[in-house]
Structure prediction request, 890 residues.
Amino acid sequence: MVVQLPHDLDPDFRAEIVQREKDYSQDLQRRGVWRHLWRVVGEYANYSVLDVESNDELHKVLSGLPLLPYLKITVIPLATHPSDIAAGA
Amino acid sequence: MVVQLPHDLDPDFRAEIVQREKDYSQDLQRRGVWRHLWRVVGEYANYSVLDVESNDELHKVLSGLPLLPYLKITVIPLATHPSDIAAGA
Amino acid sequence: MVVQLPHDLDPDFRAEIVQREKDYSQDLQRRGVWRHLWRVVGEYANYSVLDVESNDELHKVLSGLPLLPYLKITVIPLATHPSDIAAGA
Amino acid sequence: MVVQLPHDLDPDFRAEIVQREKDYSQDLQRRGVWRHLWRVVGEYANYSVLDVESNDELHKVLSGLPLLPYLKITVIPLATHPSDIAAGA
Amino acid sequence: MVVQLPHDLDPDFRAEIVQREKDYSQDLQRRGVWRHLWRVVGEYANYSVLDVESNDELHKVLSGLPLLPYLKITVIPLATHPSDIAAGA
Amino acid sequence: MVVQLPHDLDPDFRAEIVQREKDYSQDLQRRGVWRHLWRVVGEYANYSVLDVESNDELHKVLSGLPLLPYLKITVIPLATHPSDIAAGA
Amino acid sequence: MVVQLPHDLDPDFRAEIVQREKDYSQDLQRRGVWRHLWRVVGEYANYSVLDVESNDELHKVLSGLPLLPYLKITVIPLATHPSDIAAGA
Amino acid sequence: MVVQLPHDLDPDFRAEIVQREKDYSQDLQRRGVWRHLWRVVGEYANYSVLDVESNDELHKVLSGLPLLPYLKITVIPLATHPSDIAAGA
Amino acid sequence: MVVQLPHDLDPDFRAEIVQREKDYSQDLQRRGVWRHLWRVVGEYANYSVLDVESNDELHKVLSGLPLLPYLKITVIPLATHPSDIAAGA
Amino acid sequence: MVVQLPHDLDPDFRAEIVQREKDYSQDLQRRGVWRHLWRVVGEYANYSVLDVESNDELHKVLSGLPLLPYLKITVIPLATHPSDIAAGA
Prediction:
């Protein structure tokens, strides 16, 4: 996810929307849906790993992001790796 | 990491090198260095998260990959995300 | 899926592998997994829609493709569109 | 089709134009022209399959899209695949 | 269409296949299918305009090109332009 | 040529400039300079073939386009193809 | 780092923010963190080498750049080269 | 150099800045620094060859361009070609 | 022009073909057709300016290059720049 | 500089050429020409800073690299940055 906030966004609106994004993300983290979240160094962007039942659920989760209108999201479908010891390999 | 094995690689050599790659990866997973490992669906590629002390250590770890001559590796530096609850946010 | 067969592939092997790919695909079509299949005009490539339970199942299905070593596959995750009448919209 | 609506679009105009787009699309779906419609997960974009008599008809259909000024459309010409069982292969 | 002939192609085979490509193209030109044909200056490539009934016919025509295994073809669907006087505008 | 008209262009100005573009193009078509003109299906863009004496003349012709400030033009130099029967091949 | 200042930025604000960027950079240079700094010829951009303890520290340093909202930063992780005599090779 | 002037630039300011760019360029041409200057056909862009003592001088010369805020400049370092007869080859 | 000679080219053939390329280029330079020739620093590539009567002549000249099978040529059509003092501006 | 050594390179030749590259680089480092040298983490590539009198000298230096036939070099011209304290800013 790459965040592209306009320079002239109202500071109060910006602060509010960023806080709502944080709350939304942390709620999903607590529920085990948003499994990992990292900041890309030097960029207003993140790599995230979400664990969902289906593409429809994933789209619903992403569509609820408060920052959605300012996000460029690329979804990369991942599967279990045959050498992953956490998956019992 | 994208794996590009030549079509005409000797099958025995291929099997051996792939096994050595698996062993190498799993040893690093057990030591907590190779933290996450996922297969990219439909591709002979993976997304991995490694946790190291320095760039020099990371290069050393990656240089030891048995499949190295056949890998195209792109390193994306990640940092703690301010909303990551696992990091105490 | 883009097919890249080497020019010097043995003609018999080529014919056999292409036939096996066709059989594999048609079996999946009959089972409702491989839902759509189109040729890209002028290219040895196709656009396909597969309907699976999970990313793991999708990777398993794609990994079984007889032409796999010669394929460049890009997976685009699709979801139900809110205007799709076939989905009851 | 990728939709790029300006952030400052009037909400009423936006709601109206999105509704008209939905009506336009569903009318074409009912007439068998707009054969398939999927949402790209995480993006305000879709993959669609249209079945038309000619390039001129396709351009006419696409030119009528209410969201046209905000769409980036890429047309990929598709043909019957020799392994498609739905086409009698 | 971009032509990519291997350097080590047998000269006789190369001459024969290039001649067959020329014959094939000129036959289609005479039948009014291959409407225009230009060389891209400095490249072993061409821009061509073909006039066909359907995508299936176009794929059939292109699949018959003797140089097909060595061609990279990109099809751009064109329609009548509203300002084209040749189309009665 | 790709046309990129701003969304907020005054409708009267837009209508006028598009009409002037059409007149300009058709005058050049009648004079045999603008030899071919096609619409790219689904895009506000065209492929055109112009027949001029020199690069300087071509730049002069293109610089006169009423839509010039809103055009992205890419010129691909074409030559006679050795298999073109219209050129006596 | 590529700097992209809007054309209509208030000149006083621009002068102030550029001065603060210079001060910030020179303070880090004096502390040995910002090791090298070069201008890319003909561009409002620079190549910089920073020496930090961790990705988290690097992100913190870069996040403090006064020009941050106008910067496009790409971080390339570098390690000691085995032929570098400055590193004792 | 690619010139990207905003559509809504004040016409007088635009005329003045373009004239100053022309004067600046011609002065450098007369002094033998700006050795060659060509228009890219169909684009508001040019290819230029400058002959300078150092990268620092080149950056100083380019930084003085009146159109600088509206230019995208890419510098390609060139050297004497071993087959160039003008260089005594 | 980018030169891509295979690593395993016979050294004598390579020397001969490079010499023939040099002779061919210098003959065209003496005849005023190949007006400028520069080496791209660090690459086996050049930027060249050719002055010809037509696209057909340019393609003929380029087609005669002894290194042609190993060249990737991109032709950028250039015109007189309105600020070029050498063109009487 | 990106190094692309063929998989089937003779091991002795490979060892010898890599050693000669190291010697060549270190000699230039000692003479102050090759000012900086870093390994890109995870890649057989480096970022280097060379300090030369002219483009001709730089091309000569790079042309002498023993690994040249296997290198992809991109030269980015750098100048003194106005905020660089090492340059007296």
User: Anything to note?
Assistant: Chain E is about 35% helix and 20% strand. Residues 27 and 48 of chain E are 14 Å apart (CA to CA). Helices of chain E lie at 11-30, 55-63.
